[in-house]
Amino acid sequence: MNRKGKGKNEKPSMEKIPPWLELPEGIWANILRTLGVEEILKTAEKVCTTWRRICKEPSTWRVINMCCYEEEHSDMGYHLKKMCRYAVDRSQGELVDIYLDYFATDKLLQYISERSGKMKRLSIACCYFKVCDGLVEAVQKLPLLEELSLTHTAITTEGIEALGCSCPQLKSFVLNNSLYMGSGDDSDKEDERNEEALAIAKNLPTLHHLQLIGNSMTNKGLKAILDSCPHLVSLDLRLCKFVSLNEVLSSRISGQIKDVKYPHDSLAGLKFSFEACGDEDLSDGMSEEDMSDDY
């Protein structure tokens, strides 16, 4: 007589492992690295032991992307800084590339630079004047830095000098003031309009790529850059409204530099510009606390 069910000595069948869990860890590592910091810390590492192990490996944190966090319109400032420091700690010194929107401060940059001596790329957007002093100190601890990108984030001439002294491998410098936030923009003094350009010419002669969107420089500053930066391959002059290109200067630029964007060229496709944001002022709604240097 056949009996339904399992016999006393019959072992229960093993639960089948989902096919997706059988993928090699290398594939999972590549997939998980495409996620944002918050997605990894709050969700991915809680899925299974394999994912948690991968998420704790320093190699997962060689690139930290914390963009699109509009901290000035939220109460997440402290939370984001804490999460960023946690991600930097997990990198165990292996961090090479970091991107921060809105919430960077002097103290946070100091924390990052002290633990990330291998960093090659640093990008900061919409931090206005919150990291001026921090940049001077941070770049002195980043000797391998190759690319620095600052969008609506100020840098002093001291910061540019520090780049020249401490970052000999710097090849790319972006200073995007596409909402006309460049220093000296309201000044009638030519020297003040050209402070950043002259500092770049004096301190960063090895640059290959330079973006100065919305800079207040005049022809004087542009000529100094052309004279002192012979390795330039690309130069972005969009919105440099005080640069007046004559036939001689235009001919020199086109003959010396392969990829050039001129003052009146379109900003189409550029993030954080009037064409991308309409007439919105990205500084609207910022409180004194948002502009402070605190965690």
Write a brief structural summary.
With 295 residues, the chain is of the alpha/beta class.
Give an overview in words.
34% of the residues lie in helices and 13% in strands. It has 295 residues and is an alpha/beta fold. The chain has an 8-stranded parallel β-sheet, covered by helices on one side. The model is unreliable at 274-295 (pLDDT under 50). The longest helix has 15 residues, at 77-91. It is built from 12 helices and 8 strands.
Features:
295 residues, alpha/beta, 12 helices, elongated
- The dominant shape is elongated
Structural class: alpha/beta
Mean pLDDT: 81
Number of helices: 12
Give the number of DSSP strands.
8
Low-confidence sequence ranges = 274-295
> Helical amount among residues, as a percent range?
25-40%
In spatial order, strands of the major sheet run: 1-2-3-4-5-6-7-8
Beta-strand percentage?
5-15%
Largest sheet: 8 strands, parallel
Q: H/E series, N to C?
A: HHHEHEHEHEHEHHEHEHEH
Q: What is the alpha-carbon Rg in Å?
A: 24 Å
Query: Span from first to last CA?
Result: 75 Å
What's the SSE blueprint?
Blueprint: H1 25-32, H2 37-42, H3 49-55, E1 63-66, H4 77-91, E2 97-101, H5 106-114, E3 121-128, H6 132-139, E4 147-153, H7 157-166, E5 172-176, H8 190-193, H9 195-203, E6 209-211, H10 219-228, E7 234-236, H11 247-256, E8 259-261, H12 274-277
Parallel strand pairs: 1-2, 2-3, 3-4, 4-5, 5-6, 6-7, 7-8
